Description:
By secondary structure, the chain is mainly β. Helices cover 3% and strands 44% of the residues.
Amino acid sequence: MDLSPALRDAVETGLNFVIPAGIYPIAGDAIELRNSGQCIVGTGGVLRRLPERDGIGLLVSGKGIVLRGLRLNGTAPMRARGHQNDMVKVTGSRIVIVDLAVLGAAGSNLRIDRANTVDIVRPVLTDAYQNNLIICNGSTRDIRVTSPVCRRTTLQNNIFVTASEGSTENGETVFAITISDPTCSDAGDTGIELGYHCFECQVSGGYVSNSTNPALLQRDGKRNLWKGVLVDNQPYANQHKDYDGVAVTPQWEGASWQSETEFRDIVVRGPVRRSAFYWGQSGIRRIDCTARANSVNGTDANPITPTGSGDLKSGAVGNIIVKGGVIDGFATGDNWNFDGRPYRRIECSTTGVEITRCVRVFNCYNTTPIRCVIANNAGIGNLRDEIWLVSAQLMPSDGEPGISLVYDNNHFSAVVGHAPLQISLPVAANAAALLLSPDSSFVKSRGTNE
């Protein structure tokens, strides 16, 4: 029995109403809420999709609408899988959604599409085929999501924010999306993604675990803030070869795109195949973040054979500022050159970081530093190299007059019984040459074994 017509009639009155306990079968032709100021409250009733009836479940297109306690179930088999089978779609403005629960959409559980001024509080969104929550397409702005719980997706992300749902270069932007205290797990793709042209957005607090791709991902964003999120990586045995815990990667804008984005107090736990923090676009501030390869779900496990990098700069990126925090237990602590090709590193710095139990503390192989600083870092229990500068271009030339590297006041020590950590300089180069290079200095502080 299809109760869509009865629900549609109730909605069309424009009056407030309650959905009491019970199961309410609905078809796929959208029940549209377009009357301003309407309030609908669920007190235990479930709107359950009928099988093989494609379409949007609930469409919220009006202004000032309030939804409280609604429950929807989209687990019935559909003829198609995709956005045409989203369970709840919001296109209106000044919308308030509280305690929404949606299960099993053949598309996304909740879509916010070209909407503005929407408050979503405590949604529970689980088992979507595509995204549990998608906020998308140009003109979307001022969306606030508080304490979302998003668990399990088949194909895409737990939370996906993007100005281009189809991943095309459309030139549009979304603004001022705020996600606070999320709990996300078991995504088929990323945990939380601020995708193409997300500007002035913020993700703060919460916990993200067991994502197939990065737990936190930004692509072509600008002036965003990621703060205070705890990440548990996917188990190492399940990771693909390019797995990263947190990543900023290009989509259309390229490596030189100035992101003007800050990652602050992010904690990434567990070993990685590639990196805990991956920087593939420029203009990043990484402040007081922590990467612990040997911490699995908060327990300090027996040290594994170190793999991956704690922090990684990839491609032609610059203006990467790493300040404070901890890097523990990786093959390379701070990796300035992932693929070994020659790259200029313009105005990058690593200062005040504790780097421990890594095979190599710094890798600057084949880089050309321009106004770069590595200073005031320390750490114990490292294994082999303090800094690897082989093939680095350290002296100014007519082609690169601005070369300068300050390496100063770094205190690292090796494991008991190991030889002191090595410093590997380019052939025919030495620390004295750096001391003579304008604006450069290389001061090796005395290191000791533990």
